[in-house]
Write a structure and sequence with these properties.
Blueprint: E1 11-16, H1 19-27, H2 34-50, E2 53-58, H3 61-67, H4 97-100, H5 104-113, E3 132-133, E4 136-137, E5 157-160, E6 174-177, H6 184-197, E7 203-208, H7 216-222, E8 225-229, E9 244-249, H8 268-282, H9 308-322, H10 329-335
Parallel strand pairs: 1-2, 5-6, 6-7
Antiparallel strand pairs: 3-4, 7-9, 8-9
Length: 361
């Protein structure tokens, strides 16, 4: 195609069920396979010589079967693409998870964002005088000084539509992002800016695992909680094929007197929650739950017996984040050697080390 000039200044989409091939294409080489590296090199040469743009996108094997691609090897020309249907109807890169699930995904997130009384998990606590924080009990020793917390400008979770992306400064409340995979490059730029401008707001992302080269590496660096929902859940049935990626990013500034980043990423308890969520969503049969095949079946609530574990696990985790104590400068200074009696940013000689010569001068 390249030699014939059919790719000149064109945009070509290559779909594969081999995730290694996709990752190697965007990385540029393979450490273990010289043949795969040679294939990637040939593709990059085609891009340079023809001026085309190549997109290599991993999709589920079940989607390839539904699209009729595998029918070629079985001489089946009456299903999917081979029957004359549009290939784009089988690859919904321009559709978000909530649209594909007919609103079930957003409803599921709102169910575990709120408690039994319908109150969000991030409501300000009325008093903090009786809580044990940083080894102290209440009062000034705890860092709260018994004052009411008024950090949150809004405790509600706002589902951001595409019209809202470019006016985030006008929208109070925590962000629920459910964008289509094809728009993730723009969404990640807007998120990065909003995360810096409004560090007191939480973000929840729900994205199908498509076009991950645009967003997964960047988003996972900021993620406090991330897990996958395999196809087969009541809000994401088997007909969706690819798993659903769920990312929760907590506020950077959690309490009034806290001056440095606040994060729960990498804590042992957080990793345990991620492991439990991944395992239970991956193997529903272990908990005696059935798999949902399509959207025709009614969706049970997360407080129903069959999926109550989801609500219990996520609600408990979110509630604990309200009680997570910030790292106080006094505690940190006592833990680090050489910082007692000095500001955290202080160091001798302006923080720069002198290079010693051979004589040690």
């Amino acid at each position: 195609m390249g030699l014939e000039g059919r790719l000149d200044n064109m945009e070509l989409f290559v779909f594969t069920d081999n995730s290694t091939y996709e990752g190697t294409f965007y990385k540029g080489y393979s450490k273990t396979s010289k043949k795969l590296t040679a294939i990637i090199l040939r593709l990059r040469k085609v891009e340079r010589e023809t001026g085309c743009i190549l997109h290599v996108i991993h999709i589920a094997g079940t989607r390839m079967k539904a699209a009729g691609v595998d029918g070629l090897s079985r001489c089946d020309f009456m299903e999917g693409i081979m029957a004359g249907k549009s290939p784009w109807s089988y690859v919904p890169l321009n559709e978000n998870a909530d649209l594909r699930s007919e609103g079930r995904v957003a409803d599921w997130v709102r169910q575990w964002w709120h408690d039994e009384e319908g109150k969000p998990w991030c409501l300000p606590r009325p008093k903090a005088t009786d809580e044990v924080v940083d080894g102290g009990v209440g009062g000034k020793e705890s860092g709260y000084e018994g004052r009411e917390e008024t950090v949150w400008e809004s405790s509600r979770l706002v589902h951001l539509e595409k019209e809202d992306w470019f006016r985030l400064h006008e929208i109070p409340g925590h962000r629920l992002w459910i964008p289509p995979p094809a728009a993730m490059t723009t969404v990640m730029e807007l998120f990065a800016e909003d995360h810096l401008v409004n560090p007191h707001l939480a973000h929840v992302f729900v994205i199908p695992r498509l076009m991950t080269h645009m967003w997964r590496k960047h988003l996972f660096k900021d993620a406090d909680l991330k897990f996958y929902v395999q196809a087969g859940a009541p809000f994401w049935p088997r007909s969706m094929h690819e798993p659903l990626t769920v990312v929760v990013i907590f506020p950077l500034a959690h309490v009034v007197d806290y001056r440095r980043p606040w994060t729960v990423r990498g804590r042992p308890h957080t990793e345990q929650v991620i492991e439990q969520l991944d395992l239970r969503f991956k193997r529903p049969e272990q908990g005696g739950r059935r798999e949902f095949l399509d959207l025709e079946e009614p969706m049970p609530g997360v407080r129903d017996e069959e999926y109550k574990w989801t609500w219990d696990l996520l609600r408990k985790f979110l509630h604990e984040q309200r009680r997570f104590p910030p790292v106080r400068s006094g505690l940190l200074r006592g833990m680090l050697q050489g910082l007692r009696g000095q500001p955290l940013s202080g160091a001798k000689n302006g923080g720069r080390r002198r290079r010693r010569g051979r004589d040690g001068l």
